[in-house]
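PROTEIN DESIGN WORKSHEET
SECTION A - STRUCTURE
LENGTH: 116
TOKENS:
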């Protein structure tokens, strides 16, 4: 529940979700959109991803939750320091940090084991 509203989530198995991950720069400055676009370019040949920089990041997460996107990738100030991003899992809302270079393998692994 967010601000008195129930959280709407389409709980599609990651294997069948049409979009596998949303990519979000936390803010539209400090090179975050450019880094997020590079991640989009890196992942797009392998996975269907969606780039979104409009509105608050929580609202962007909710939009993707509603259409069944299983993962959210957020570029933030820590990304600028250590090349890591936050990977958020839709159903548990658990968030962990991963190196950008490890992101594709981590997503592949999570999609593969999603219903096992």
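SECTION B - SEQUENCE
RESIDUE ASSIGNMENT:
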């Amino acid at each position: 529940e967010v601000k008195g509203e129930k959280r709407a989530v389409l709980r599609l198995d990651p294997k069948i979700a049409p979009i596998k991950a949303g990519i979000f720069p936390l803010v539209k400055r400090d090179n975050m959109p450019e880094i997020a676009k590079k991640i989009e370019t890196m992942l797009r040949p392998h996975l269907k991803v969606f780039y979104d920089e409009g509105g608050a990041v929580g609202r962007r997460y909710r939009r993707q939750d509603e259409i069944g996107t299983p993962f959210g990738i957020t570029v933030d100030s820590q990304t600028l320091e250590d090349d890591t991003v936050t990977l958020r899992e839709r159903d548990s809302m658990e968030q962990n940090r991963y190196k950008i270079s490890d992101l594709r393998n981590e997503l592949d692994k999570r999609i593969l084991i999603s219903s096992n």
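SECTION C - NOTES
The chain has four helices and five strands.
The CA atoms of residues 6 and 62 lie 11 Å apart.
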